[in-house]
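Data card: per-record layout.
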Amino acid sequence: MRRVAGLLPRLLLISLLLFGVVHLPRGGPADVYAADPAATPAAIERMKELWGLDQPLHVQYWRWVSRLSVGDWGTSYVERRPAMHVVMDRLPNTLRLTGAALLVGLVAGVGLGLLASVSRSAAVKHLARVVAVLGMSVPTFWSGAIVLLVFSSYLRWIPAGGMGTIGRPADFLDGLWHLAAPALVLGSVYVAQWMRYVQAGLDDVASEDFVRTARSKGLTRLQALLKHGFPNVMLPLVTVLGLELPRLLSGAMVTEVVFSWPGIGRLLHGSLVARDYPVVLGALLVAALAVVVVNLLTDLVYGVLDPRVRYA
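The structure for this 312-residue chain is written out next.
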């Protein structure tokens, strides 16, 4: 309950920082329209007055926070409709992509980490190290561009972008076909990191007395690690999952732009270019709220996995 009660002041502080950072660069949305030769200075001033951009920053912030308390995020300068609707229309697409990438990272990372820890082959362990280094060093914008170049432009195996085939009714298989490439590219970054955590954790517990006792009772190394060793790896893995959410969201932004995936990341990119402040602040607040909530859930899961934490 103390942690839940601390969410509101934390979110208020985050909103203040976000508002200041977004308004820090010189210029604003009116300057985008000022580039139009037909825009007169009087029209630009009327536009600033209409949007409230002629007020001091503290007045703009107070007005924005006051509207947030009643569910009003402001009106998009570009789409001329509520910013909440603009952001929420894209949120399910981002959740679909990040959820698929998280599944790819967990399944492949845990599986490869378990394989590298159980196997006695030097070749398997060397391959695991190579995968770890490549996965953690290759940025998503580069790997995404290579995937599009090879598998879309040359081989024609995957679509060039989007969520569905133009002119074709939406269906599950077509959506999965469009989702596979961006999810694999985004999830590949976390495969390497989670594989190293699982492998290191299992290697540490493999020499513990309780694992050796299980081996002496006839269990194989794989059975002993799965039954007795893997629960000890869950705590650091849950910690990593909670801490990696901001990186997952930032990676989703780049991946959405590369694969033309209509999610919050691509929306944020376009809104930053257009200086669409209400949409930018709404998208950033949704991301901040997701990070805060996931950190809270991580603490709660800790208590489930380790009862000692619950009574601390």
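Known properties of this structure: Residues 221-258 form the longest helix (38 residues). Residues 14-68 form one domain.

See the next section for split statistics.
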